[in-house]
Amino acid sequence: MADERTTWRAEALGEAKEVQLRSGTLRYHDTGTGRPLVFAHGLLVNANLWRKPVERLAPDFRCVTLDLPLGSSVLSMPDADLTPTGAADLITEAVEAIGLDDVTLVGNDTGGALAQIAITRRPERIGRLVLTSCDAFDNFPPRIFQLALAPAQIPALSRILFAPLRLRPLRRLPFAFGWLAKHGIDQQAEDSYVLPPLRNPANGDDAARFIRGVDTRYTQDAAERLLKLEQPALIAWSSDDKVFPAEHAERLAELIPGARLEWIEDSYTYSPEDNPERLAELIAGFVREPLEATA
Description:
Number of helices: 14
Distance between the termini: 51 Å
Shape: globular
CATH architecture: 3-Layer(aba) Sandwich
Number of domains: 1
CATH class: Alpha Beta
Strand content: 15-25%
Radius of gyration: 17 Å
CATH topology: Rossmann fold
Structural class: alpha/beta
């Protein structure tokens, strides 16, 4: 029987559902009605990352939160292509399989890199793009995590080296969540991030396969393609970010035609954790704007 600490998902995310994709079953959460928002999280977290913004947005929008196989998901996907392009294709394939159109795709951390790749590979069902603090350009993976992530390419070794993260105080170290969440993370959510790859070999395998494929050529290629992006884009970057430089937010806003840059104060990378009110406000305002106002 699965440990509830590894499978817990916040009630605010809505009903857990599953969709069959070409390479396996993907789990997602669905709540609210209205124009669809699709949320993509990063490596070694899960749908819980978005629980606070979703709670604020669901009264006015349909919020679909993916539980991607990046190490901390409920369902692993052993047959999936988890290169960055393969993982990005899971997002757009899920959007199509769920039957969504004209979605606003929202990405954070690694999920922001995947969102960039996804919209430049299969843009047809994506109407708008929101990038919060995330990998971009030559920062994939982030430099400060390169040494920490190297052992995770070997699942058995990663379980040994990351085993101390069972202890909550150690999770506040910079190589864990210390430089990602300024104000800490609720224990239930934090456990759901940390424990799956430590307790379930299939989760560790998913993470290792993805990490082995990470390379700056994917984000550099996406950046070149973003120059021709036709969809409106919002760059909602954390002003206190220690992992993803403000310069990259400014570069993204300059290269994406018509993109708007907004800052999220009092937040590290995980703005959905640190300042969900501001993030939700920015997303809602952006989606409600007429297209000509975002151009």
